[in-house]
Amino acid sequence: MYKPLLVAACAVLVLGACADRTQAVVAAASPETAQPARNFMLFFGNDRAVVTPDSAAVVREAAAAARANPNARITVAGHADTSGNSAYNMVLSQRRAEATRQALIADGVNPATITVAAHGEDSLLVSKPDGMREPKNRRVEIIVQ
After folding, report:
1. CA–CA distance, 40 with 77 (Å, rounded to integer)
2. CA gap 65, 59 in Å, rounded
3. What three-state secondary structure class fits 76?
4. Would you say residue 45 has pLDDT above 80?
5. How far is CA 98 from each of CA 12, 25, 39, 68, 114, rounded to the nearest angstrom?
6. Paired strand residues for 132
7. What pLDDT is attached to residue 113?
8. Which residues are registered as beta bridge partners of 142?
9. Chain-centre distance for alpha carbon 137
10. Residues 6+ apart with CB under 8 A from 108
11. pLDDT at 33
């Protein structure tokens, strides 16, 4: 007599737990809930500020993430390696960030949601002595939050 009652009680608890879990997932996906930041990174050739076809794929993915969140704020940060002088590298990192910004806009991102920053050789991904080329430092980071 107790066994069917115990089975029924367990079934109710399991179904109740599943229902609570479904509600939590729906709440996390709602537009009012803050979405976690997504980071995208694209790389550039030496002394280049042109978005390559490989990098364009990364830009498209970032643009899709931005369009999926109507309240998204996008930060585009340009970087350079330590080859060349620091003033030139600051300008180069700005050109890289602007090229990426234009690619995001071309992919349907609202320009008003994009902030551009240039870091030159100040925020190296890979630490290198001055005057050294490092492909991983020649980059733009796109943060969608």
Report:
1. 11
2. 10
3. strand
4. yes
5. 57, 37, 17, 22, 10
6. none
7. 98
8. 40, 76
9. 17
10. 63, 67
11. 58
